[in-house]
Amino acid sequence: MTDNTQEFDFSDIAPYSDDVFREKMKNLVKEPGFLHVLGYAVPKEMVPTMVDELLSIDNKYDFQHQVMFPFLEMLAKTTTAGITLGGIKYYNPGASYTFITNHRDIVLDASFLNLAFLRRGMPTTEVAIGNNLLVYDWISDLVRLNKSFIVKRNTGLREGLAAARKLSAYIHHTIVEKHESVWIAQREGRAKDSSDRTQESLIKMLAYGGEGTFNEKLKEINLMPVSISYEFDPNDYLKVREFVLKRRDPDFRKSQHDDLFSMETGLLQFKGRVHFQLTPLINSRIDQIGEFRDTNTSAKYIVAMIDQAIHRSYEIFSINYVAFDLLHDSVRFAGKYTTEEKQSAEEYFAAQLAKVDLPDITQEERDYMRHLILTMYANPLKNKLRAMLGGME
Questions:
Q1: What does residue 45 show for φ and ψ, rounded to 5 degrees?
Q2: Pairing outcome for strands 223-230 and 274-278
Q3: Pairing of strands 223-230, 148-151
Q4: In whole angstroms, what is the distance from residue 23 CA to residue 81 CA?
């Protein structure tokens, strides 16, 4: 590959180099906000000892293996019923990948995928994270110490195009020159209704960098779709609340506090079983579609490939089958769950909806809320059925 990254300075978006690790960590452990978060990870009396341990580390590899690995194991033990990884046969240790996944949790999609890799002694990925989530400087420092790179959002049109070109060049540089894998979500923001769809604009952005044709640039970064399935979404009731608020006021926008609370809820509340399914690289399928003069057409085909791979590979839990049957007033999947599982799911839906703290909720809105939460849990099953039956969606 001809290196076309020379024109870019990645220092404002790339993970921190090990050369500055110790300096950045010294600053981080002085931040009251970081120390507050550290109190969640270890007992309060252990915080000074933990700070000393952090100050003894001078590189990202040791930080991930000595600190983040045990922290994520603790989080998995206390907030999940187990994390599993399938499709490992599609992974070649000699290659670097762009793992492109559906987006369920703001923080944990990439973190738990990296945990699954750490457990197998596989290298972790660099992680794309939007700057809209980096509401404090210390959060930006923390994620960049933990192998994350920054996606600049909320920019003007000209600045946005320049940021997209730079981001794409960085991803190509990371895969081809640094021989590191990256993780990126298939869309900006989570799918509020759990019906996952890849954004065409993301695929076009990924093809800004690299050399050759549109298809060749995408093949260069080895796109591997990964399907993420959470049995329970701790943020489901917050998403329902947001839908209701937008229904009441179409101009409603979430606050920074809302985003932080969603991050905290996703991190600390119970998620049930969590499954990651690796799927085959799409390079050979990109070859099959050939080159189109119009990149919009190419992007549409590649989006469909990614969506189909993710949808076909969902892990479907009993709650998804129950939600489908309740939503459609059917017994189509009654053989997939017991009476006890159905009752448990109905109790879960009721308990989550009871957390929606809005004044003057009407009966119509309650019906709407129930429809929403059932739709969230039924959509993965609907998408899987469509993908299994219809080929390319």
A1: -70, -15
A2: antiparallel
A3: unpaired
A4: 38
Give the integer Cα–Cα distance in Å for 97 and 113: 13
Q: How far apart are the first and last CA of the chain?
A: 33
The CA angle 195-148-169, to the nearest 5 degrees, is 85
In whole angstroms, what separates CA 44 from the centre of its chain?
30
In percent, the amount of the chain with pLDDT more than 70 equals: 97
Say how far apart CA 144 and CA 142 lie, in whole Å. 6
Q: Rounded to an integer, what distance in angstroms lies between the CA atom of residue 298 and that of residue 285? A: 12
How high does pLDDT run on average in the chain? 94
Neighbours of 287 (CB within 10 A): 12
Q: Give the start-to-end residue ranges of the domains of the chain.
A: 79-232+270-315, 319-390
Predicted local confidence at residue 378, as pLDDT? 98
Whether residue 2 has pLDDT greater than 70: no
Give the Cα separation of 53 and 384 in Å (integer). Answer: 45
The neighbour count for residue 390, using CB atoms within 10 Å, is: 10
Its CATH architecture, for the domain 79-232+270-315, is 3-Layer(aba) Sandwich (3.40)
Q: Sheet containing 83-86: give its strands across.
A: 83-86, 274-278, 223-230, 98-101, 182-185, 126-130, 148-151
Q: Which two tokens stand for residue 157?
A: 């049109």
- How many CB atoms are located within 10 Å of the residue 367 CB? 10
Backbone angles phi, psi at 345, to 5 degrees: -65, -45
- Quote the tokens at residue 32: 């009251």
How large is the C-alpha radius of gyration of the chain?
21
- Residue 27 identity: N
Asked whether the beta carbons of 145 and 24 are under 8 A apart, the reply is yes
List beta partners, residue 101.
185, 226
Amino acid sitting at position 154? N
